[in-house]
Amino acid sequence: MGYRAFVGGDDAEMWFGIGLLQFQFLVANGLRPNHIFIDIACGPLRLGQLLIPFLNEGNYFGLEAEEELVRLGLANELKFGLVKSKSPVFGFGYDFDFSFAKPFDYAIAQSLFTHLVPYDIKKCLVNLRTKAKPNSKFFFTFFEGDSAANPQSLSHANRNWKYSQDELHTFAEGTGWALNYIGDWHHPRKQKLVCAEPIF
Question: Would you state the pLDDT for residue 14?
């Protein structure tokens, strides 16, 4: 399906495999049905198709810049009245406006910071911090490497940016988050994982 290709899931392994990887990782790290979850850059619900049925009604919040992707995901990936019974909530836009969401327990941005310049990474961190609880955990992926070869352009879904761990810590300074590097988590595209926890 064409909308899956938009998030790099144009084959079954990439679509279901990365969705399942995220889901199992989150559950293994404490996610439970009663938790509030924010899925940042949720797209056509590669993760949402698993999390929405798992979470209690009204506990899934998805942020996506392209509203059409969510519409297609809801129409094609969730069956048997799950949208009505689980009542997922969505926000749309490129400005990382989380005002639509409740304070969260867990959040993830899988393959989002890989496409963002530092300014937008900082903006996401600052805005998401307003919804953090003392025990919130925000997981995000990034491409680890030399930023010298990064594109000289604005953030773009079809371009990739690499950063060092030190650079990520620099981006997070003053945003209210402490970063804990996890690293390899068996991502098929070798994206590394970080856990951000709020500073109170």
Answer: 78
